[in-house]
Design a protein that fits this description.
- The complex is a heterotrimer of chains A (about 170), B (about 70) and C (about 325).
- Chain A has one domain (about 1-170).
- In chain A, about 95% of the residues lie in helices and about 0% in strands.
- Chain A has helices spanning about 1-5, 10-145, 150-170.
- The radius of gyration of chain A is 64 Å and the shape is rod-shaped.
- Helix content of chain B is about 90%, strand content about 0%.
- Chain B has helices at about 1-5, 10-30, 35-65.
- Chain B starts with a helix and ends with a helix.
- With about 325 residues, chain C is mainly alpha-helical.
- Chain C has two domains: about 5-70; about 125-325, no CATH class.
- A two-stranded antiparallel ribbon of chain C has the order 1-2.
- In chain C, a hairpin with a 2-residue loop joins strand 1 and strand 2 (about 95-100).
- In chain C, helix 5 (about 155-175) packs antiparallel against helix 8 (about 275-305).
- The chains are: A mainly alpha (about 170), B mainly alpha (about 70), C mainly alpha (about 325).
- Chains A and C meet through helix 2 of A and strand 2, helix 3, helix 4, helix 5 and helix 6 of C.
């Protein structure tokens, strides 16, 4: 103590020193407890919250990306299916149209054939009728011309011969 | 008298600070993007250079007090 | 009032009237001239400013004369400063407390009350989006923590940040007591030495905690084994010098600023109206803030130095040798 007081350091100064150190420590504790730590805790909580939100957002974004990928694939599949369906439909349509056309052609052919047949029949009938008529007419005319009675058998022979010659001419 | 002689130390501190500042200005001119870092170092260096003058001042005070 | 003083006041009144009239006259001219003639405009503006300065000087002179007559103060005074604060009459356990200690205790009380008010009334109103005071506080806390982490590393930085934060508050409060006309506690060697002592304790605490007892001494000795017997005592002395140098630096700066202010006041005598206020912006506001910053930075640097392990030093040495080889 003597040495200290010889340097001009008194008990009062030492007391001051101790009081100052204690007051600074008290200040530190008070500031830390009441101001620093609450603010820091608040900030940390907010940072955590923001980070959690960020993580969540990232997760959501990832999910969305996966989903979009899925949908894109689905879309691609759909497009493929569509293209295929169109292709099939086209093929089917082509086939069907071909069938329809061929059926129509057949039908038309048959109709034409029928018509031809009918026309031929009609023609034949008409020719027969005309033959009969001509036969009767010729018989009448020849009978009138000859003015004689001809017996039926003769007549018929003559007419048939005539007709045969006509037919032969026709055929020739 | 003794305290006046002690205060002559301020001369040295002044020169030291002058050199430090000159170099800092040079380096800032060369690298303007590192200005904030250089400023921090300059402040610290100036404080250290100044401390000699401060010690002289304290010694002068002690001498003049006796 | 003597005739000399009356003459001085008369001169100042005449100058004031002249300059005031000139100012108004030039103002009117400026209004009329418009902004077509730039050269004339400039000269007119210059004259107007000159008149304004004359007005202020005459007012200052008149106030100075008046104050000198009123208080009888003359320029020149005997200044005597002690390194320690003056003793007050307040006694605790038989010890007389100094003026600065009482101020320190008052500061601690004020800060404590502010903190309680903050905790009870302001903190519950904190919102997710910071604004106003909350923004400032968050900025400060973040800046202090970043600064500590940058200087002493991640782990010690987190534990040291609140102390540095409170130290910054304390130093700023101390500096602003000087604006109230009291002696700043930081211009008392005892106060600054107590802060230096705390830094010394922290330095040793963190150093021994990080490196251990033997490791600390090893790192003190440096990488060369032969140099250790010389290096270790040197290091110990330089460590002991840390609180003294910190205390003396802060004390010297604060007291220097105070002495300059007092000298200005003494030299101007009764005319010390306004001018010390302008000088005080530097000596009482800017300079203490810089000193607080330097005190904190240096404390952190010293703590970091004490925590620097031998492995880091050897790495540094290796790097240096590698550089030298290159």
């Amino acid at each position: 103590m003597d040495m200290l007081s010889s340097l001009g350091i008194t008990k009062d100064l030492l007391a001051d020193l101790v009081i100052n150190i204690v007051s600074i420590v008290v200040l530190f504790l008070v500031v830390k407890k009441l101001a620093y730590n609450p603010v820091k805790k608040f900030m940390a909580a907010r940072t955590e919250k923001v980070m959690a939100q960020k993580l969540e957002a990232e997760k959501l974004a990832e999910e969305a990306q996966a989903k979009s990928f899925e949908y894109e694939e689905l879309l691609k599949e759909c497009e493929n299916a569509k293209a295929q369906a169109i292709k099939e439909g086209e093929a089917l349509a082509r086939e069907e149209s071909g069938q329809i056309v061929s059926a129509a052609k057949e039908k038309a052919q048959s109709i034409i054939d029928n018509a031809n047949k009918k026309a031929e029949e009609k023609y034949n009938r008409m020719i027969d009728e005309a033959n009969d008529y001509i036969v009767n007419l010729t018989i009448d005319a020849s009978s009138k011309l000859l003015k004689r009675e001809v017996n039926d058998e003769d007549n018929r022979k003559i007419v048939e011969a005539f007709l045969n010659s006509v037919d032969g001419d026709e055929n020739a | 008298m003794g305290s006046a002689i002690a205060m002559l130390t301020a001369l040295g501190a002044g020169f030291g600070m002058c050199f430090a500042t000159a170099k800092a200005v040079e380096s800032v001119a060369r690298q303007p993007e590192a200005a904030s870092k250089i400023q921090t170092i300059l402040l610290l260096g100036c404080a250290l250079a100044e401390s000699t003058a401060i010690y002289a001042f304290v010694v002068a005070l002690i001498l003049s007090g006796k | 009032m003597s005739t000399a003083e009356l003459i001085k006041i008369g001169i100042s009144i005449v100058v004031f009237a002249l300059c005031f009239a000139g100012n108004i006259h030039f103002k009117g001219l400026l209004k009329n001239i418009g902004d077509t003639d730039t050269k004339k405009l400039k000269s007119l503006k210059k004259r107007k400013t000159l008149c304004f300065v004359g007005v202020i000087i005459s007012i200052w002179f008149a106030i100075g004369v008046f104050v000198t007559w009123f208080s009888g103060r003359k320029s020149g005074m005997h200044i005597e400063f002690s390194m320690f604060g003056e003793r007050t009459g307040i006694e605790v356990l038989g010890m007389k407390l100094s003026e600065t200690t009482v101020i320190t205790m008052a500061i601690v009380l004020i800060v404590a009350v502010l903190c309680v008010v903050f905790r009870l009334f302001i903190f519950p109103k904190f919102k997710e989006e910071p604004e106003g005071l909350q923004n400032v506080l968050e900025l400060c806390v973040e800046a202090v923590e970043d600064f500590c982490k940058k200087n002493v590393g991640e782990k010690a930085g987190v534990s040291l940040a609140p102390y540095m934060f409170s130290l910054a508050i304390y130093l700023i409060m101390c500096a602003s007591t000087e604006l109230l006309g009291l002696r700043a506690p930081t211009s008392d060697l005892v106060v600054t030495f107590s802060m230096g002592l705390i830094t010394f304790i922290l330095l040793n605490y963190f150093g021994f905690k990080k490196l251990g007892f033997a490791g600390r001494f090893k790192s003190m000795g440096g990488s060369m084994a032969a140099m250790r017997p010389i290096m270790i005592p040197l290091k110990i002395v330089s460590d002991i010098a840390v609180p003294i140098s910190l205390a003396c630096r802060l004390f010297g700066n604060m007291l220097g600023g105070m002495i300059v202010m007092e000298l200005l006041k003494g030299a101007l005598g009764g005319y010390a109206a306004g001018i010390p206020g302008i000088a005080g912006l530097y000596f009482n506001l800017f300079h203490p803030l810089i000193q607080a910053y330097i005190f904190i930075t240096l404390s952190l640097t010293f703590i970091e130095e004490a925590m620097e392990g031998p492995e880091k030093q050897s790495k540094k040495a290796k790097k240096q040798s590698a550089k030298a080889e290159n």
